[in-house]
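3.2 Worked example (two chains)
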Amino acid sequence: MKLNERSVAHYATCDSPTDHAGFLRKRVERHHHHAHHHHATSYQRRWFVLKGNLLFYFEERESREPMGLVVLEGCTVELCEAAEEFAFAIRFDDAGARAYVLVADGQAAMEAWVKALSRASFDYMRLVVRELEKQLEEACKSLAACRQSPRRSSSSSRKRHLSNPALLPLQEKPAVLENGYSTWGSGGAVPGGATCPDRDGGQAKPPPLPPRRRSAAGSAAGSPAPGLSPGMTESPVSLDTACFSKLHGWYGQEIAVLRREWQERQKRGHP
């Protein structure tokens, strides 16, 4: 592939999305030609910009033209041992290809650069696309199976409901309202004061007695508490009081008696 220098330079500085950018120190080796062939190593601080699989580096952050370009294909990005800390290298598969040794400013910056550069090649993107295609195919198969199974289960459950009225949902049962409010036994109540048998075959069960009423009911000879009206001897949970308005009135009498007793104690100066 032949790269046009002007087009590449424009791509490096245009407003296209940048995958990663930041300062790195780039190792430069200079060869001194004398008897011992001494190699001098130094590092130059450059501004690097990653776009796709192209890694550009500039002399300064505000530079308008890149100094160089690294095509990230057929290469590996790995940590390397160097005199400088936080160093990593871009090595190509060709034996005679040049390796780029770069140094980040810290551990977090080094890990971010290695991660971004390792995912920049088309080979990596090809593997990702294949994996996503595989996951999409499995998801489509699961969705098709789920679309078929609920139809069979819902039709069979509907047949069971029709054959056994006790399995009908609660919202399908008519609610009995009294003064615009549903009674506690509306799920199985019938107009006219009649009761419906529960699942055990008995009559509809009223709510349990509260602790105070239970202790009063267990007193000797079942005599009403002082101050209560004779009509309160009737159990609030009998079949005749199986509606909220009657229960409310019945317990309201006891509250009124307790309130009067409290007011009398306050007048006498007793708490």
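3.2.1 Second chain
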Amino acid sequence: LVTATDVVKYWQNVFETNGIPEARESSEYILAFVLGAKTFQSLNSKSLHTPLTAVQQEQIQQLSNKRLERMPVQYVLGEWDFQDLTLKMRPPVFIPRPETEDLVSLVVQEESQKCQKNSGLCFPVSVPHPVILEIGCGSGAIALSLLCKLPQSRVIAVDKEKAAVDLTRENAHRLQLQERIHILHHDVSYNSAKQLLLWGPTDFIVSNPPYVFHEDMASLDAEILRYEDLDALDGGDDGMRVIKTILALAPFLLKDSGSVFLEVDPKHPNMVENWLQAHPNLLLVLRAVHKDFCGK
């Protein structure tokens, strides 16, 4: 008889032998998923020592074989959690990283500070209904988290890849947020302002754009290179190909009090500041730089 504990050990060993990164975590995630749990740690002692059925063992075998091909665990399971949401995942749509949760928190923080400022005024101010534009929505992780955390908000989510647009749409429906999001299949360029002003000027532009320097692409993990959409990562020679487009569009898209939130490489803040100084007509100011929880 084979128990959950036996299976985790077995596959951890197979993964390690085959040089699969995060062998133990991979094995635990797959097992927990098959047993209908979020994490291995959340399984009780009874679940861990109850013999697995033939069907469960077969399912673990199939998922583990995919992981042996260096498929990211998020794609192997077909779903992943971001903030407090469980989102469907499908290759090659970009997998949201935990650091990007910090980006969402910063936007939420900024919006709640705006609300506090307004509520301090003597005359009544109508409840704000922020309009947020997300460029490069991928699975919808950022857009849908913001809709959940800011119940008055509406989001326009844009991606140039049809697979991403379809996945964001599917995730929005699963979370019943489809009424407050407009999803566009569109490749953002310097001429995009008209298409993006569907609901008038926006309060926030948010993006986790491709920001990897082209020369660093080859050294990314096999999981990324084999399965993820590399266009969602490759930011060109200076890593700023899409960042520059977003900044150039921002003055045409934002309200006067609007802000842009970008996730970038640690080398980028100085480069962005220099670029903005070279383009004073955009009237944009680099207001703050935050490190993520990894200190980057």
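3.3 Remarks
Residues 213 and 239 are 4 Å apart (CA to CA).
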